[in-house]
Amino acid sequence: GATKSTTVELTSQKIDKKIASHVLAENISSIIKCCKEFELTELAEKFMEMHIITREEMEDLVKNIKKNSRRMNIYQMKQLLKQLERAVSFRGEIFSWFLKILEDYDTEASQEVARKLEADYEKMCPSKP
């Protein structure tokens, strides 16, 4: 029978990994603002599922969130996003996957950031003939 896929359906467009990782780097502070602290755990779990971070890294992060200060959690979010950026520089389609995560959060802020990332990406892509 058919196996059930748990991965997000990606767009058919081929993602330019260099442009996508640049767009993420430029927008890290916007992404951090839209992802509330309690979402850090969920984000870490999703990153582990996509092999962006290891299970140990995810478990350490989750364990530390509760005892960390807000500033430390923001630092950890930055580290997580840097790993995302690195992963996108190897596999461009992870950018589409991350946009889908932001859209699925279904908050005004996350939707806005997803639109901005997509628009920035489109702006930087060489126009098609």
From TrEMBL:
Give the protein name, as stated in the record.
Answer: CARD domain-containing protein
